[in-house]
Amino acid sequence: MKKLIYVLVAVVALAAAFVGWRMMAPPPDDLDLARSKQTQAGMFTVAIAPESEPVRQGPLHSWIVTVTTPDGAPVEDATISVDGGMPQHGHGLPTAPAMTAALGEGRYRIEGVRFNMGGWWELKLAIAADGRSDDVTFNLVL
User: Fold this and answer.
1) Do the domain assignments include residue 125?
2) How many independent structural domains does the chain possess?
3) CA 80/CA 107 separation, integer angstroms
4) Please, which pLDDT band fits residue 114 given cuts at 50, 70 and 90?
5) What distances in angstroms separate CA 46 from CA 1, 89, 116, 120, one per listed residue?
6) Number of H helices, E strands in the chain
């Protein structure tokens, strides 16, 4: 019985060390930090920009998302859902960001984005417009 307890303690310690190492690892060197890209299926081109720079850890942020067709025409009347998190830490965003306004010319305001710690974050947008839907993920490093 004692031997089993020692093995379990060793396994838990190794798992904790692995998780700690993974959480502290730097982001991948080849991480795509572009703030404009096509959605996964190529239905839309999406650009993101914070309403104020620099993007900092702690405060709530608002972002402007610009959605166009692949040929550059603004996409009006879109709905945008927001998700994301820290891939290396395995947790999501600490807030529930949402699209709060359509600003015209394919631009939309997303409010309530908060990054509660430094590191690699993903901002995932699901876009629906004109009977089509597609997703895009942006990488941010704070």
Assistant:
1) yes
2) 1
3) 11
4) very high
5) 59, 26, 25, 20
6) 1, 9
CATH of the domain at 63: 2.60.40.1930
pTM for the full model? 0.82
Q: Measured between alpha carbons, how far is residue 48 from residues 64, 110, 126 in Å?
A: 6, 10, 13
Domain span holding position 118: 30-141
Q: Has residue 9 got a pLDDT over 70? A: no
Question: Does any domain span residue 11?
Answer: no
Measured between alpha carbons, how far is 107 from 82 in angstroms, rounded to an integer? 15
By three-state DSSP, how is residue 44 classified? coil
Across the chain, mean pLDDT equals 89
Residue 16 has pLDDT above 80, yes or no: no
Place of tokens 């904790």: 16
On whether residue 5 sits in a domain, the answer given is no
Give tens-digit pLDDT for 35-66: 999 999 999 999 999 999 999 999 999 999 99
What is the side-by-side order of every strand in the sheet holding 120-129? Answer: 91-92, 79-86, 120-129, 132-141
Q: What is the largest CA-CA distance in the chain?
A: 69
